[in-house]
Design brief:
With 262 residues, this protein is an alpha/beta fold. The chain folds into two domains: 7-130 and 219-247, 3-Layer(aba) Sandwich (Rossmann fold); 139-213, 2-Layer Sandwich (Alpha-Beta Plaits). Helix content is 28%, strand content 24%. It has helices spanning 7-19, 35-51, 62-70, 78-81, 108-116, 148-160, 198-205, and strands at residues 28-31, 56-59, 86-89, 93-94, 100-101, 121-125, 139-143, 168-171, 173-174, 177-178, 186-191, 211-214, 216-217, 223-227, 232-237, 242-247. Strands 2-1-3-6-14-15-16 form a seven-stranded mixed sheet, sandwiched between helices. A four-stranded antiparallel sheet has the order 8-11-7-12, covered by helices on one side. α1 (7-19) packs across α2. It is globular. The two termini are 18 Å apart. The mean pLDDT is 94. Bound molecules: ribulose-5-phosphate.
């Protein structure tokens, strides 16, 4: 491992490296989006190359699809693959019930569809992603472009009656232009600071006309793997209700780190 990786990247790598140990021959695997997921795609590609592992990857964004193809992973759409064995993805926050805020990378719509269509979702994270209560990270809500300002006003009005601390929404920007998702939509980031009832919020947000999907993942994640900079990993298992500690051997693999740009 190159020594110049930051401690946080080493933590992401450790989680990613452990997660691909759950992938078995012939599996159909959902491939998440973001910097942690990119480490996972690289680690998975190493297994494909070194062990001849045969899997089909279902990417959750064009970014991940490009990376997976470039690294030699066989890629299919969700409709081609059908039901998936496993999805591995990053997160922006996770709480003690393994509920998540996702969408910091703008891909939560495809990510939620893919994770929901999987037998199991494994989330990989660095320690900063663990929170006692969701909401410090702005909650992404994908909205269609038509009438987005009206949708924003309706969402803000709705938040007044809900158990959240902040009630403002901002349109996500990409430099001077509104951010556009892979599905051609915009994203509103909700600055809530604290979400008292994530399940209720997830349900009611999707009732607002114009909202396509919010970034709350409730009862979707089965296991969170938290990596640490020294190679330790903690496995938070929802079924077993326990946290197990392990250690990952950092392979001397330059391939995993070559051309990191995600
Ligand atoms: C993309 C996501 C990402 O998983 C999330 O933003 C975490 O990203 P990173 O691993 O770069 O911290 O939800 O939509």
């Amino acid at each position: 491992m190159p020594a110049d990786l930051s401690p946080i990247d080493k933590a992401k790598f450790a989680a990613a490296q452990r997660s691909v140990g759950f992938v078995e021959e012939g599996m159909r695997v959902g491939l998440g989006t973001g910097s942690t997921a990119a480490f996972m795609v690289r680690a998975l590609a190493e297994r494909v190359r070194n062990e001849g592992l045969r899997i089909t990857g279902v990417p959750t964004s064009t970014r991940t699809a490009d990376l997976a193809r470039e690294l030699g992973i066989t890629v299919a759409t969700l409709d081609e693959a059908g039901w998936l064995d496993l999805t591995i993805d990053g997160t922006d926050e996770f709480d003690g019930d393994l509920n998540l805020i996702k969408g910091g990378g703008g891909a939560h719509l495809q990510e939620k569809i893919v994770a929901t269509a999987s037998d199991r979702m494994i989330v990989i994270a660095d320690p900063a992603k663990k929170v006692a209560q969701l909401g410090a990270f702005p909650l992404p809500v994908e909205v269609i472009r038509f009438g987005w300002q009206t949708t924003k006003a309706l969402v803000e009005e709705l938040l007044v009656s809900l158990d959240v601390l902040g009630q403002s929404a901002t349109l996500r920007m990409n430099k001077a232009e509104p951010y556009v998702t892979d599905e051609g939509n915009h994203i509103l980031d909700l600055h809530l600071q604290r979400i008292g009832n994530p399940r209720q919020l997830a349900l009611v947000l999707n009732q607002v006309p114009g909202v396509v999907e919010n970034g709350l993942f409730i009862d979707i994640c089965d296991l969170v793997i938290v990596g640490h900079g020294d190679g330790r990993v903690d496995l938070h298992d929802i079924a077993r209700g326990q946290v197990a500690g392990e250690r990952v051997a950092f392979a001397e693999s330059e391939n995993v780190f070559a051309d990191l740009d995600d």
